[in-house]
Amino acid sequence: MPVGTPYITPQMLTTAPTGIAWNIIPFPKANTPQMLAEQTNICWRATDIVNNYCNQVLRATADTEYLSGPNYRVTVQTGSGTGRAILQRSPVLQVLAVSLSPNSSFPRQWTTLASTAYDVEVPIIGVYGSVAPSAAGEGGQAILIAPGAVNWWNGRHGWRLAISYVNGWPHTSLTQTASAGATTLHVDDVTAFAGAAAFVYDGAESETVSVSTVAADSPLILPVSGVSVPAGPGTLTLSSPLSFQHNAGIVVSSMPQDIIWATILAATTQALESGIDAITIQNVPGSMTVGGHGVSDLTTQYEVILGPYRRVI
How far apart are the first and last CA of the chain? Predict the structure, then answer.
């Protein structure tokens, strides 16, 4: 089973208005464990479909990316001399470390820049310092580096860069039941949750939370820089108590809800492709139409939704 939480869970999938009879999947008269197992598989496959279409992982991850420059992805701005590096994943939430080495040096002779020598070019808004997560495809995938660090002294591709950063939207689930009034949540991934607002997906008892601090059970040590990053299983400390009790497995996420819906649609296409079900929708005159939306319609719909989040470089 993959690490972490898929973008949707069986509870979120089976209660969504998809029109699918999930109780006959994977086959009619399947028992509850069999149904749950396949529904979980569908959720993971739908998550991978979404990531594949977007050409990147959308959940928050801590990554170290290696680039050579100056070139088309690592440029030096005329006039200011500021370096600019276009990274693979977006939105970039935080730059953790930037290290440089002459590209001709083997083994590498890394120099790690001061933390004041770089920042995010287009910081994301609506997740940090807000009362609710964003519902828009915002933020960028580039960072700025202080003048002089990246230059043309060694020619094109003269520098090798190791850039560690956090990207995507914080996304996790509870590993233990959280009682009403609790201010600490035990989750399977704390990546990027410090200071973030998130939505607790629990049906009629859903609520928003604001995370003040996080603690990882085993912090991630990044290569090259050796920076320690809170990632993986751990605890979230909330700025205010929970209003409701939430059981283990409940999703806590800052991911835009249109990504959640697109993942549900991607999961629904799997049920339709199996040939054992159809979606029933209401016609405007009042009659019922079976199969009003086929796989191609739903695929087009989730691809349109995911358009703003798709990586193009």
Answer: 30
Q: In the prediction, which pLDDT does 24 show?
A: 85
Cβ partners under 8 Å of residue 117, min gap 6: 98, 145, 146, 149
Pair 141, 93: CB distance under 8 Å: no
Picking from 192, 196, 233, 237, the residue whose alpha carbon sits closest to that of residue 213 is 237
What pLDDT score does 138 carry?
74
CB 90 within 8 A of CB 141: yes
How far is Cα 141 from Cα 198, in angstroms, rounded to an integer?
A: 22
Cβ atoms of 233 and 253 within 8 Å: the answer is no
Gap between the Cα atoms of 72 and 80, Å rounded: 18
CA–CA separation, 117 vs 145, rounded Å? 6
Strand partners for 142 = 86
SS3 of 127, please?
Answer: coil
What residues in the chain have per-residue pLDDT under 70? 1-2, 126-137, 274-293
Residue 181's nearest CA partner among 104, 271, 242 is 242
Structure tokens at 156: 């094109």
Q: Name which of 260, 258, 253, 254 is nearest 304 in CA terms.
A: 258
Specify whether the CB–CB gap between 302 and 45 falls below 8 A: no
Task: Count Cα neighbours of 50 within 13 Å in the Cβ-side half-sphere.
Answer: 30
User: Could you give the C-alpha distances from 309 to 50, 55, 85, 138, in angstroms and in order?
Assistant: 10, 9, 19, 8
**Is the separation of the CB atoms in 225 and 97 below 8 Å?**
yes
The helix (run of H) or strand (run of E) holding residue 305 is helix 295-306
The pLDDT assigned to 123 comes to 86
Could you tell me whether strands 83-86 and 74-76 are parallel, antiparallel, or unpaired per DSSP bridges? antiparallel
